[in-house]
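Worked example 4.2. Below are the chains of a multi-component assembly; read each line carefully before continuing.
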Amino acid sequence: MLQMDLDIGDFCSNWAHCDLFSAYLARMVSHNRLDSLLFSNLYSSALNELLETVFRVHGNSGKLECSVRRQGGLDRIELVFPADEDTFAVYREAIDKLSGKDAEKLYLEALFTEDEPDASLGLLELGVDYGARLAIDRAGDGRMCLVAELTLEDENE
Amino acid sequence: MIAENSTQSFQWTYNENDQEFALHGSLRPQKAEELSKCISALDQSVSNVSGKFYVNVRRLVRMNNVAFHAIAGKILDLVRGRSDLDVHVTTSSVVGWATRKFAVLETMSEKITVSEYDSEFYPGQSFVEDSEFIHVLRTQTKLTWKHEKDLLREHGLKPGMQVADICCGIGDFAVLLQKEFSPDRLVALDHSKSSLDYARQVAADFGIKGIDYVFGDAADMLLEDDQFDFVTCRHSLQVFDRPELILKELFRICKPGGRIYVTNEKNSHCLGEPRGESIQWTYNEVAKLWHHFDMDIEIGPKSRRLLLEGGFEDVTIGSFMVTSTDGDPQGFADIIASWKNLFAGKMASERGDDAAFVERFAKGFDDHIFAALHPKGYAGWPIWVASGRKPL
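Applying the procedure described above to all two chains together yields the following structure tokens:
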């Protein structure tokens, strides 16, 4: 298990943090995979979308914790970050969309919208395109927990 | 004409001859406006094009949804606004997310097609992936290893190093490296999924652990910069139409002060007695045949120049000869028989050679086998070994 803690303000001081952290963590967790390079690239893409979502939608102040762990072929990413009710509602809405029958349709609509892409697009992508299981919960101390469980490698390939 | 521009971590290139707009690098902007120059360049590139316009994202390693939304939206605008235009997007199987992500464009318009570039990293890839060729490759490695085991030490390989074997093929050389040199880390990369599957299976069957077999394009690897003490690339510059691109990548992933090690052939110098004249004629023709398929099987002695021009220092070059007197004349003969099958078979046929040529061409291989197995004969296959150090 790897965990990264930092102040949400520090994290959001630079957009490049999303890319840097996702690339770094992906490299750290890519050992002993069927193909470490392919895995690292996919993992980085998925984690980056999660981090970009948190970068855009989060509460005012507090700590961001990002922990990643592996159990066999399943990789779990857990993000705990400050979230008021409005913030939590954004994530809940995205999770609700993913649990519906038309999740793929909603993802494509979000992907090709004429407007600015919605902040939850990354979550929809993870759920539909990466087949990730997403869950949210209240974490106390004004924060929320976002969990993504991913199976990025097909052991039968 | 090629126009090129760059922002922080990505580039775009337009090749007018191919009507192809290519994106390279990492594309994770915060806002779509950050791509405005790129989108303008795309607009400008397509303005004089009718028919099929190619968007190449093979070298696009990372892309977030902001970038995808902007680029994909522009592609959709183009095909919807221009009745004379179709767009083809080329992705890479090396980049896991790319094909899946771009494939959704096909669902948005019949005028957009998306395909995965996979099979043409090397002009000769279809030849060397032939399952029959695997046996040849294994025998070749067995015979060359006798020489290379010591040469690798002379060129600077030591136990405990961080090592990469690029274009590892079926992975047997990596297994030998692992056994002989116990590297601290060993990454073996190849562009053939079937070869890697074979390599992983062999490693598992033999209980070999610690080799990280990865899929990748040697000319544009996902491996990070300055990682390896020793990088090997054997018999591969010769099957690539632009070897300098591979060397550039070998240089990039090598640590400053580390070395890269390349082996290559000069097939026209294959020799044998008796029947030397026939053998010589055939191998001269082999060189021409490979040239026809944009490969240079004569590259061996050119390795020194390639390394020096690639920015390496302390370049060392030498050669060794695998011969029928190394202790396995039948193994040597088997290699030549496989060359005959491939060169005078599939490759000559694809070039359209006539029966008379093929007969004479094949006879030189038969004569080489004859020399190898003749009790008083001698047959040789020369290989050039070069290494160079990446400056500190």
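Take a moment to check your reading of the output against the notes. The CA atoms of residues 267 and 286 of chain B lie 7 Å apart. Chain B has twelve helices and 14 strands.
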